[in-house]
Amino acid sequence: MKDSEKYMDLWKKHLPLILIHLKKLKNGKQEINFNKYEFVGVGNRLKSGYTFHIHLQNGKIENDISGSAVARALVKVLQNNKETKSWLLENNLTINLDSSFCLTAMLTQKVI
User: Which residue pairs, CB below 8 angstroms and at least 24 apart, start in 44-49?
Assistant: First the structure.
């Protein structure tokens, strides 16, 4: 199993909650606190960590997330879901997961 696939089920489990928070982004930054042990239970990334930073513009990744299996899995889950895929095409988004396992999402300006 590829590293990014290890985290697919974890993100799918939390997708309904993530979608609720994405819809609330018009009101400002949204945060979701996750349990560290959910991530540690899936894969051992203690050396490299679980943190990531993703920029999505028009549904496409704008920065290099190749070093983060956790980030790649989240993007894949978001892009494979009909509702979130549509939402991503209409919005530009920055998503971060910090070392405290807090996922932060915020809208960014569209580049024309």
Answer: 45/69, 45/70, 49/99
